[in-house]
Automatic annotation (TrEMBL):
Residues 34-53 bind DNA. It comes from the Bacteria. The keyword Membrane does not apply. It comes from Brachybacterium faecium (strain ATCC 43885 / DSM 4810 / JCM 11609 / LMG 19847 / NBRC 14762 / NCIMB 9860 / 6-10). Residues 11-71 form the HTH tetR-type domain. InterPro entries: Homeodomain-like_sf (IPR009057), HTH-type_TetR-like_transc_reg (IPR050109), HTH_TetR (IPR001647), MT1864/Rv1816-like_C (IPR025996), Tet_transcr_reg_TetR-rel_C_sf (IPR036271). The keyword Transcription regulation applies. One of its GO terms (molecular function) is transcription cis-regulatory region binding. Pfam families: TetR_C_33 (PF13305), TetR_N (PF00440). Keywords: DNA-binding, Transcription, Transcription regulation. This is Transcriptional regulator, tetR family.
Amino acid sequence: MSTASRPYHHGDLRTALVEEALAMARADGPGGVSLREATRRAGVTPPAAYRHFRGRAHLLDAVARQIQDRMAQRMRRRMRTLRGTSEQERALQRLRGVGLGYIAFAVDEPGWFETAFFGPLREDAPAAGEVVQAADRPGPGPAVDAAGPALGGVTPGAPGAEAAQPPLPPPFRLLIEALDECVQAGVLPAERRPGAEFVCWSAVHGCAELVLHGPLRGAERAIVQQVAQRVVDDIITGIR
């Protein structure tokens, strides 16, 4: 991808910076995201960028949220391809689509996947090849919590935690909704519903990690699809 500076529409610099950072994350994961490089590609000066982002961690947070939205869109498309002839079958197919869509996104977009759920790095940790120069900053910004968008930087059970919780990541919300539909359709006993989202997410995320970093890395697509199908089928069997 060309790194030449691109013009942006006046008043839309924030979007331009996020788009440049999305391209960097897609190619190299979270370690490849640099506010300085995004600024250079957008063709603006660092002070202009710092009016929109306090630093690299703040930019990574915005990028992660964008990726989560795009991931959920692809998962919905996968869910629409799986149909059933009864309410029970449709509910199970929606749950199957959530799991298969999650794994497929990880395989198709490894850089985005690794950026989506692991939160921004520490504010003072430079990106690969980036040297942070304090002189370019207009001044220190507020601290950015390193817990990231998935948990919102709030310790569960802490005072005010419930009020401070941000919206759930869209892919996780899709999973919760699919499981609730399974309960309503009578294919998942209500007493087995609590916590089922974490069991399901652990399984599909583990599968994705095996494909990206484990013994399935470099495996043929057909093999990966077979494993993904088996994992999701076993999830559905296990939670019932």
